[in-house]
Amino acid sequence: MSGPIKHIVMWRLRGETAAERLAARTKVKTLFEGLKGRIDGLTHIEVGTDISNVDYACDVVLVSEFTDSEALKAYANHPEHLRVREELGDLRIGRFQVDYPIKETGK
């Protein structure tokens, strides 16, 4: 598949208390936002943390865009991405992902 790809990942995180969950959310947000400008083909990255606190919500969402599917594949094994995953360790207890092509405007 050619053309831009949107990559969305949502996580549920460990944490027994509100303070632990907040610290976990902040850590994920900080680490992933630190990837801006470090990975070829990664054209957009934003990280949101949940404010609803409903029991079925995920804690963090990553919305990123890549130039194409090859860039997304390269991201999966990029040393900076792997470093972030390593630093997060087992903080994540649930992970959900959707990847889809972005329609270019005017087409």
TrEMBL record:
<dbReference type="InterPro" id="IPR013097">
    <property type="entry name" value="Dabb"/>
</dbReference>
<feature type="domain" description="Stress-response A/B barrel">
    <location>
        <begin position="5"/>
        <end position="100"/>
    </location>
</feature>
<protein>
    <submittedName>
        <fullName>Dabb family protein</fullName>
    </submittedName>
</protein>
<dbReference type="Pfam" id="PF07876">
    <property type="entry name" value="Dabb"/>
</dbReference>
<dbReference type="InterPro" id="IPR011008">
    <property type="entry name" value="Dimeric_a/b-barrel"/>
</dbReference>
